[in-house]
Amino acid sequence: MKNKIIFIINPIAGKSQGKLVESKIQQVFADKNIDFSTVLTENAGHAITLAKQAILLNPTIIVACGGDGTINEVAQTLVGTDIALGIIPIGSGNGLAANLKIPKNIDLAIAGILNHSKTKIDVGKINENYFFSNMGLGIDAAVIDNYSQTKKRNFLGYVTASTKAMLQFKPKKFKIEIDQNDAFDDAYYFVFCSNSNEAGYGISFSPNAKLNDGKLDFLVVKKLNVLQQLQFSACVLGKCIEKMNRAKVIQINNVKFKTDEPKTVAQVDGEAVIFEKNSIEVSIVPNALNIIVPN
Ligand SMILES: Nc1ncnc2c1ncn2[C@@H]1O[C@H](COP(=O)(O)OP(=O)(O)OP(=O)(O)O)[C@@H](O)[C@H]1O
Q1: Burial class (CB in 10 A: 0-12, 13-18, 19+), 146
Q2: Three-state SS for 257?
Q3: 13-27, 118-132, 145-159: lowest mean pLDDT where?
Q4: Ligand 1 atom nearest to CA at 42
Q5: Of the residues 80, 84, 118, 276, which has the fewest C-beta atoms closer than 10 A?
Q6: How far apart are CA 280 and CA 293, in angstroms?
Q7: Rounded mean pLDDT of 83-112?
Q8: pLDDT per residue over 49-60, tens digit each?
Q9: Which atom from ligand 1 is nearest to the alpha carbon of 40?
Q10: Is 294 helix (H, G, I), strand (E, B) or coil?
Q11: Measured in angstroms, how far is the CA atom of residue 73 from the centroid of ligand 1?
Q12: What is the whole-number distance in angstroms between the Cα of residue 208 and the centre of ligand 1?
C-alpha cells in the first residue's frame, strides 16, 4: 500500500525548531512521490484535534514532531487503529524517542521516516486516557507542575523546577491496590508507572522497562528525609533506585490509587494533569499502538 504521511508539528516544543523541521520535511519529501502534508499546532491540546482530522484523510502514518507531550496528544487518537505513529523528536526531554532509538538529529530522524520498519508497542492507560512513556504522582508530578509554569523549556528549566519541588514537596498518602490486591498504604515521595525505559535527558527511573513486554514497571518510594532524598537523586543518576530499601520496583498489569485529597496532580508523559477524583486507575494495554522506527 502506498504511504500517505501527515506531519503534526509543535512549533514551541524544545528549542522551537518546528518551522525549521517543517521546511526540511518539505525539501526532503517534495521529490519523493509520496503523498504528504504538514500542519503546525497552535495551542496545547491542538495536536489531538489535528490528529482526529488527519485520521479522516486515511493516512498510513501520522508523524508527531515534538516532545513527549505532542506524541501523547497525537498517539491518543491512534490507539487501536491501523495507522502508525512516527516521531521526529524535537522536544526537550524526548524520553520515548530515546527508548525507540530515534535519532535527535533532525535530518536523520526525517530520513528514518522515509526508511522505516513497523512495530507495535504497549500503551499505558490512566483513567480514560492513554500514556506512552510514563506517569507519576509523587515528586516528579511536582517537578513537572513547576516546569509547566516556567518559560525555560530546557534542562536548566527542569533543574530549577526540581530544586523548587525538593524544597517544597510533601509526601502524598495513597492506598495502593496492585493487580486487584491491597499492596501498600503509606505516604510516598515517588510513585511512578513506566512503559518506557527513559524519562528524558538520559534519565531513567525504570531502566528495565520494555515497550512491548505487556507490563508496566511500577516504582514506589516511601517518604524520605533530606539525606535520603540526596541518596535518591544519586540512585536515579546511577540507575539503581531498586537498591534503596525504601523503594519497591514491581512489574504489574494494573494499579489503583486511592487518596483522601480532593485533587491529585499527576505528570503524564511529562505534562501536568489534575485529577479531581479520589481514585486513579492505571493499567497496560498490550500491543495497542502501531509505530514506525528508523531502519
Ligand atoms: N502552538 C503551541 N503553543 C503553545 N503550546 C503548545 C503549542 N502546540 C503544542 N503545545 C503544547 O506544548 C506542550 C509541550 O510540548 P512537548 O511535550 O511536545 O515539548 P517539550 O515539553 O519541549 O518536550 P518533552 O515533553 O519531550 O520534554 C504540550 O503540552 C503541547 O500541548
Answers
A1: buried
A2: strand
A3: 145-159
A4: 1
A5: 276
A6: 32
A7: 96
A8: 999 999 999 999
A9: 1
A10: strand
A11: 10
A12: 27
pTM of the model: 0.93
**Looking at residue 93, what is its pLDDT?**
83
Instruction: List Cβ<8 Å contacts ≥24 apart for 243-246.
Output: 246/189, 246/221, 246/222
Q: Write out the three cell numbers for 186.
A: 503509606
pLDDT of residue 154: 77
Q: Average pLDDT in the 185-200 region?
A: 94
Which class does domain 131-285 fall in?
mainly beta
- C-alpha–C-alpha distance, residues 145 and 274, integer Å: 10
- Residues lining ligand 1, Cβ inside 6 A: 10-14, 41-46, 66-70, 73, 91-94, 153, 200, 270-271
Domain ranges in the chain are: 4-114, 131-285
Q: By alpha-carbon position, which residue is closest to atom 31 of ligand 1?
A: 44
Question: What's the confidence (pLDDT) of residue 85?
Answer: 98
Question: Are residues 181 and 218 in contact, defined by beta-carbon separation less than 8 angstroms?
Answer: no
- Which residues lie below 8 Å from residue 132, measured CB to CB, with a gap of 6+? 68, 71, 72, 75, 96, 121, 123, 124, 195, 196, 269, 289
Q: 3.40.50.10330, 3.40.50.80, 3.30.300.30, 1.10.10.10: which CATH number matches 4-114? A: 3.40.50.10330
